[in-house]
Structure formats: C-alpha cells, structure tokens
Design brief:
The complex is a heterodimer of chains A (721) and B (158). Chain A has 721 residues and is of the alpha+beta class. Chain A folds into 3 domains: 7-206, Aldehyde Oxidoreductase, domain 4, CATH 3.30.365; 215-295 and 352-428, Aldehyde Oxidoreductase, domain 4, CATH 3.30.365.10; 314-344 and 440-717, Aldehyde oxidase/xanthine dehydrogenase, molybdopterin binding domain (Aldehyde Oxidoreductase, domain 4). Helices cover 29% and strands 24% of the residues of chain A. Chain A is built from 17 helices and 29 strands. Chain A has a 7-stranded mixed beta sheet with strand order 11-12-9-19-16-17-18, with helices on both faces. In chain A, strands 14, 15, 20, 21, 22 and 23 form a 6-stranded mixed beta sheet that branches. In chain A, strands 1-2-3-4-5 form a 5-stranded mixed beta sheet. Chain B is α+β, with helices and mostly antiparallel strands. In chain B, a hairpin with a 2-residue loop joins β3 and β4 (55-58). Classes of the chains: A alpha+beta (721), B alpha+beta (158). At the A-B interface, α5, α7 and α16 of A face α1, α2, α3, α4 and α5 of B.
Amino acid sequence: MNTRDKGTDLSRRSFIKVSLMASGALMVGIGLGQRAGAGELIDETWVANLYVRIDRDGTVTIVSKNPEAGQGVKTAFPMVVAECLEVDWKDVKVEQAPLDDRYGRQVVGGSRGTPDGWDDLRIAGTGALYLLKEAAASLWGVPAAECSARSGTIMHEASDNTARYAELLDKAATLPVPDVSALKLKSRPEDFSLLGKFVPGVDNNLILTGQPLFGADTRLDGMLYAVYEKCPTFGGKVKTANIDEILKQPGVTHAFVVAGTDELNGLLPGVAIVGETWWEANSARARLQVKWDTGHSDSTGDFDRQAARLASESGETMRHDGDVDEALGTAEKVIEASYYYPFVSHANLEPQNCTAFYHESGKMEIWSPSQNPKSGRGLVSRVLGIPEDRIHVNLTRIGGGFGRKLISDSMVEAAWIARQVGRPVQLQWTREDDMRHDFYRPAAWHRFRAGIDGSGRMMAFDHHFITFGRDGKTISGAGLSPKHYPAGLVPNFRLRQSIIEAHVPTGPWRSPGHSAYCFAYQGFFDEVALAAGRDPLEFRLDLLSRSFGEPPLDLKRTGDTLRIAAEKAGWGRNLGPGRGMGMAFHFDHGGFVSHVAEVVADGPKIRVEKVWSGIDVGPVINLSGARNQVEGCVVDALSTAQLEITFAGGAAEQSNFHDYSLLRLDRAPEIECHFIQSDNPPMGLGEPPIAPATPAITNAIFAATGTRIRELPLSRSGISA
Amino acid sequence: MSHVKLKINGQEHSLDIPEDMPLLWALRDKLDLVGSKYGCGIGICGSCTVLVNGQPAQSCRLPAVKMQGKEIVTIEGFAPNGDHPVQRAWNEEDVPQCGYCQGGQVLTAAALLERNPSPSDQDIDEAMAGVICRCGTYFRIRKAIKRAALEIAEGGSA
C-alpha cells in the first residue's frame, strides 16, 4: 500500500527542491540568456542546470520538463540530455518537473515538444559536460580540448588520466558559465550513440506494478472525493437543487451550488457533492435533483438540415487562384463528390480528474494530469482570484491526452471545490461526465469538384467547406487554412466556406483539423485518379511534382514518404479477390507521413490487416517511442472512423463505451514503420501519423469492396471494421 | 455500512463500507490501492481488472461484500518487483504508452497464459478483447504475449 503524503509537507519539499535548483541553476535555454554551465554544489549534489544534477555517489538525475501523456516525452527528452552529457542510460534517473516558468513551454500539444526542446536539452547536457571537461582539464593541467568523455568518465589519453564525473563536482561548481556559442551540439544521427535506439519507457516498471503515477492516484491526508454535476445542455445554469437532501446521504460531507462563469472555457455552473469516498459522493448524486436554466438546443438533425441548405449557397470565398469556373468549363472531365465526418470525442481512458488543496496560507496546490498546466494555472487564478505565484501545479502522468487535457475545466472545478471545502479534494468525473462534457472534434462537410485535362492531370479544384462557428468565425478545431493542399498544386483552385452557428463545445483533437479533413481530400484524390484512369500512387506523385506559386508542403519529403510506404507494401502486386490496398500522404505539425493499408473484406465486414508507414520527422530520438506514436495513430484512426457523437436538445447523446465503442485488440492491424532520417531538425510524432491513416484505410476499403467511403462513421456506408 | 473481510494480495483487510460499494472503490478509496483504474464504471473497458481466484474480473462491477472468502490479486500484488515474464515482455516490447490500461492488460494476459501457455492469435483476440487501450498498443500487446509465452516455455517462471 502506498502511504499518504501530507499535502503541506510534500509541497514544501518540492518547493525547496525547486528553489535550490533556482539558486544554483544555470539559466539554460532560449530567452534565458543563451548560457549554460557552472551551477552550484548543494550538499552532495551538483546542480548543473535546470535539467541535470549529479550526486557524489555518481547518480545522474535528468529532469523531464513536459507532462507525459503517453507520447513518450519523459523518456525521449532525458535521452537527448544523456546523449549530450555522455552518460550511460542505465545510470540515469529521470524526474518529472512541476509547472515552473523557468522551463519555458510545458505543454503536450501541437507535436511541439521535440522541436521546442531540442536546443535546450542539448545545451543542458552539453553545457554540463563542458564544465566537467574544464574541471578535469584544470585539475590535470591539460587543455580541455584534448579531453574526451564516455560513460560518465572524462579521459585524457596523453597523460593517461581518467576521472568519474562524480569526482569533478567541486571543481565544476566553481567554473564560470560558458556561452552557448562555446558548445558543440550533436545534431546528426551519425553523432548519436543513444538517440535512435529502441528504449523502453522510464515509467514502465511503475506502470506494470501498479504504482501511483496518474492524477487520481494522488492520495493526501484528510482528502475527500468530489463529483460535479453540470447541465447536460452545455452552459446551462443552476436554478435550484435539493442540496439539503443530498447532505443527508451517507458519506456526504459537503454539497453546494457553484454559480460558475458564463464561458464554455471557464468554470461551468454546477453542483458539487463531496464525500468520504468517491463512491459515496457519486451514489448521492443519483438522488440529486437540479432545475436548470438551459441554454441552446443544438442538434445533429438541425446541423444536417443547415448544411444541406448551405450547400446550395456559394459561401464566402477564402481563396481563388486562376479561374476555377472557366477551367471546369473546359475540363475533359469533371468529378464531383461530397464528404462528411461527424463530431467525435477524445475518450481518454482516464476520465478528467484533478486534486486540489487550498492551504490556510492562501496557497493553492494542484495535482493535475494536464496537457497545458500553465493555461490551467491562469484559469484558476482568474476565476478564483488567486495570484499565479500562489498556485503550485504538480504534473502527474496523464492517462491519455489527445488534446482533451489542453482544456483545464476539471482543474478550475477542483480548485473551486477545494477552496470551499478547506481540505484536499479529489474531483473525479464519471465516464458519462467525460463523454457528455467533451470539447469535441467538429464535424464538417466538404463538397469537391475537380477538373482533369486530356492527359488526366487535375487542373481545377473547387472546394466548398461547410463548418461550424460562432459570430461568423470558425470555432476551435473547425478552421481550414486556405494554404492547405491542393492549393498550390493545381493552377485553378478555389476554397469557399460556409459556417453553421454552433454552441456545442469544440476543441483540439489529435492533429486538429488534419485528422478529420485529410480523409476527405485523400479519398477524393483517389476518385479523381480513378476517373482519370490513373494509378493512385502515380497520380499522387504527379500531383506532388509541380507547384503553382508557393508549394503548400515540401514536395520531395512528402513524395519520399509515399514512395517508401508503397515500395514496402508492394503496391501494385496482385492481392487476390476480396483484398485491396489504399494510400494517402499528409503533412502536419512538421511531420511528413504516408501510409498504405491492406484490407481484406468478408462482405461488409472488413479487416485492416496491415499498414505500412513512411515517416520523415528528421532524426528519430527514441525508436520505440516513435513507432509507438505511429502504431497508436493508426489504431486511433481505425477506431475513430467507426465512432460519432450526436447531439439532441443541446446535449451529447453518447455517454460511455457501450455507445461509443473504441476499437479492441482483435481488430487492430499490424503496423510496419519506415523512418526516413532526413537531414532536418527532429519533429514531434504524436499527431502527424493520424491524418493520412484514415484515408489510407477508407481507400483500401474501396479497393477491397468497391464501396467508396464518403461519410464517416463507416457504418453509414454499411461497413464495419 | 457493512463490515467485510477481504483477502487482497495475500493480506487480510477488515473494512466498513457501503453495502453496494464495488471492489474498485474499496481498493482505491479505502485501501489506497490505486493500481486498479476507473475507466467506465460499467464493466466494459477493463482498466479496473483484478484477479479473483485467478480469473480476470472487472472490479468496478463486483460488490466488495461478495468478495469475502475469495483470493483477490491486484496489479500491485501480482509480481511487485515487475519480474513476471508478462511484465518483462511488456517492458521489452515497450508496450505502454499512457499506461492507464496496462495493469488490466497485464493481469488479463497473465491469466490467459496460466490456462493456455501457447495461445494462438485467436486465443489472444478472445482473451484480450475485454480490455480497451485508447492509445492503441494492441499490436505490441500481441507481440508481448507471444514473447512471454516463449519465455515461460523456455523455463522462465510464470
């Protein structure tokens, strides 16, 4: 059994740790003076900088600054530091940083962790090593440039001197901070000994033995458990609630109405019930009767009717290259199709939760599985009126993010409830809360017309995008860049946009936008290729061979990923009856990914057997983590292609995994990854593989069954996978 | 309130709990055994899986009062050093992404190998379909089960 931490003591410990680091820290990183080095010896530990500590007993501790949501950053980031510090991975201890502004961006999102952290992490490792070399050189009276390092040891061959890092700490701590320009940073795969290898996650043993890691695993002395009931209609306010009756329920310690704020992204109004155990609090909730002042009544049926009406209107022209109408008028052939995908939920396996303790001193301490703790801290500060420097946020492991935990609703709810209660409180949403109060990936309609010329080339592309917004502007996750391909790849291009007014909450969902509309583009490209009598691979490579104005993506890197996926899949080979292959390319969040999927069909029941992936995100940091993201994205795409959230009377209709049924192991394909280690800075991989996975699969379904998937979920076309 | 005696990970616990409290919440909120996770509360996602007399069961749907006299093993008590062939295979294949479901996956896989030391793909499909992995680590779970099976066959202790 894990012992309960005393909240105050724990926070004091972590504050001390941080402040000691601050006192001795070399300010490493962009915006912090571009310096690295020196640091301070504190007791038995050399605090080289914000990321590196070395103890006299030889222990090397590397701090991971970003939250870990399964994207593998807690392993990958310390690997970069260890690579540059020249220490053996087995000798490294990894520690999770709390939210601390000195680290800069601490966000899981936008696949930005790797590119943003790449310089800081290399500077941290290389800067600490620089000082250790200088320390050894000065002790031995030799030039530092003649010293080398390996496995936690500095060596000087000519004088036959060696020293373990731990022996050099006193000296290193006295040396001046080097300028970043003095550091030679490793950057190419041939320089790496650890990076690019298959390294298992640093928390694996804790995960596999059930140790506390996640938000709701937090246990504090005197902690109570809370549930929070919100209006099923988004943003509805509490008129009355039977609080007195709820307070009489067994185990209930507190129950109260929270007035909340007026914004969907603030503190939604509701009723908090707090109890000795979560089960008792949630059982009392079954007796809760609330009269709501409900707001809007969005429904899927109404959205559909509005979309049908808007489809016949012209919409707002967002971009027009050449003359689309004239080009379509003179085209050899015009191909038309409409694509649709529904709203979907993030469905993190770990429902939203947060633990908070408002100390008597006025300090708010929070334990949160947040993808964006800084934004959460700002929200708590704004809504509760607590200065940000009085709010301390501990980053717990996140049980799946996918964008949902960029939004801090559970954090502000927990903080509000905890302050009112005056004891540590753990707020745990039910699965039903989670699914009914998501910030959904928005649905959209795409009406395409393409013109091909006598040689089968696409020379005109007309696109009417029908999406969601408020006050004439697209809402979160519902926008589409006018620069998106095939803009720039065809001489005549037009994008028109129409907006349906919506009041349901929407938000970033893994590779926002891309993960949805890539399905439409790449499905339609297949239709155009086939109408032109061309092979889908050859058609796409030809499309990527020319640009008109600024190309919308790196044509060579995109083409290379497509070629390697196709080559490894054996594109064009005879598959026999009931089988088919489909492909798609895409570029988003700095990553180039193409997939080829092979599908076998038994009537309308299909199975995705295998997916071959071509990926260029620059040098791979952790081969295991990188493959994991590709594999996860493919499964996520196949799963989500079979799901939808619908609305009636302003509320989501789905509530749990019985009516929002995530893919299970028996339907998961094999995935084979091929990384092109191009000469580019490394980019993140949590998002880029998902967008092209959906159309690779739906195009393969067409090849295997003859059913063109123009709408999701797949069940709309009578297909199940 | 009911008074119950539960045998969990080989240890006897005496608890006063509500009559209808599922085992999951007795574990988490009464005993601070937080390795069993809450995912759906309706017994279909498998994050809360424990072994009851060696069989995988969804602890979010099992009333704790009915668990008296049974041997309950949670992921904390399964192989606390992490050296069971299934845990080792899970680490070597680096199965976990977020890790939230993996306790349930490991216990379910271990129970499968206990009764069927060399499972076919179809056996794996059937045994593992009860545990959702939202991150999509399924391909690695399959590989890890096969790796563990091989190790057990070669004499690694199960």
